[in-house]
Amino acid sequence: MELKSLFVLASFAAFSLAQTTPTQVESDITNGIVPKLSAVITAIEDFSANGGSVDQAMTIHLADDDLNAAIVQVTDDLRRAVCPLSDSDATTILTDLEALSTNINSSLTDIVALKPELDTLGATPLIQQDLTVVKVSTDALGTALVACVSTRTSNTSRQPRSSITDRPSSPSTLPTLTSLCTTSLARARLIKEFHQRHPDAPCAIQGIYSILLADQAIRDYFYSTHWDATC
Question: Which helix (H) or strand (E) element contains residue 138?
Fold first, then answer.
């Protein structure tokens, strides 16, 4: 009986340690994604300011790898978190992610502008691969976030919707998320305009902005309406 009790306690302890707190999620956004995204911007700016070399292109590549690792870490955090998150925690995490919009917009604008130089160095395929990897990771982050802040069933979230007005009502347990979703939709329209000005980079924009369009209904509407199907 004593051995069985020890086994149960050990199992409970292991389970507890495996869970992630909302504070840890927020910390990994603030101390992980934020500085890694800043490093990508710094690498891009250095490439642009100094004529662009193979070494500088590799620096962008390595910074992209680090950013991807940080995104994966936050995704893993959310998958191990106790869901659904409280209204307060969900709002804080979404706000933290939305705060990245300025730097994301800057990095995408700059990387599009550098395409001729990257082409000359033969580095475009490498950077394009980085952006594809980041897209996959940000899609996974968006999925994990939706699963942890929404009480809708997976069947409901996958039902086709012809427009944003067809989306299910926001869960009553998350009333303060409405303003964040509205902000995301407004930003979506701005991203569409950016996409029209820079048609060479639709997949990059589409992928990295997934973390900002956390509401599944908005994501469904935006992707089906505006994104290149090849992405």
Answer: helix 124-149
